Amino acid sequence: MKQKIQNIFVKGAISPSFITEKIAAHQGKTGIGGHSIFLGQVRSDIVENKKVIAVDYTSYEAMALEQMDSIRETMIEKYSLTCMHVYHSLGKIKSGEICLFVFTSSPHRKAAIDACSETVERLKAELPIWGKEIFGDGSFQWKTNQPA
Amino acid sequence: MAVKIQLFGQLKQMAGISELTMDVKDTDGLIKEIAARFPQIEKLTYLIAVDRTIIQVNTPIKAIQELALLPPYSGG
User: What ranges do the domains of chain A cover?
Assistant: First the structure.
């Protein structure tokens, strides 16, 4: 059954309490035997002696949501997931804060783990989202994603 | 025919605008116009999305379509 398009975008950082609430919300789904969670955290890289203090995320939201919906549908079908949730921050996220939360659930662990990993790789490669790394002195550079 | 084009990420920052209107008939024409109008972004690579789908070959542009220029992604 086709589910409606989920909004993945969260304004600002993803809080630890938001994550625990999402985990707790699955206690009623007793067919689940394993969850897999990936959390992306803003890293304080040092570039030419300047430290990244935040990443400012923007997106072509309409396209990103359509792309994510297609990835989600593929993952649910391929791994027979019970459910799957993705949240990505928009706006300025300070280093050390969480900017990405991928949460997959299935009756057995392997499917949840594999689906979580594949989803993270695909969304980094396929979603039109851009991160601007901001340094302590106010200057910035555009983030480029690493292969893994 | 005049179409609205959305710019994102580094393209938006370097061009100094998030949206513009251009009179072009296909995506090859669009690339030429963009290069002429914004020489500062000539060296940037970008993809073109027509109605939220990345196009790989020259594509005719119709007035109703949603056009966007997308620099390399860096989400997550």
Answer: 9-22+32-142
Fold for A9-22+32-142, please state it. Aldehyde Oxidoreductase; domain 3 (3.90.1170)
CB contact under 8 A, B76 and A99: yes
Q: What is the mean pLDDT of residues B55-64?
A: 88
Q: Which secondary structure element, helix H or strand E, spans residue A21, and what is its range?
A: helix A16-24
Read off the pLDDT band of A3 (50, 70, 90): low
How is residue B39 annotated by DSSP? G
- Local structure of A147: helix, strand or coil: coil
Helix (H, G, I), strand (E, B) or coil at A103: strand
Cα of B37 vs its chain's centroid, Å: 12
Q: Is the ipTM of this complex over 0.90?
A: yes
Residue A115 in tokens: 């689906």
Name the pTM for this structure. Answer: 0.94
Could you tell me if A141 and A133 are in contact, meaning their C-beta atoms sit under 8 angstroms apart? Answer: yes
User: Which residue from A64, A66, A130 is facing B74, i.e. has the nearest CB?
Assistant: A130
Please identify which residue in the block is written with the tokens 């799957």. Answer: A84
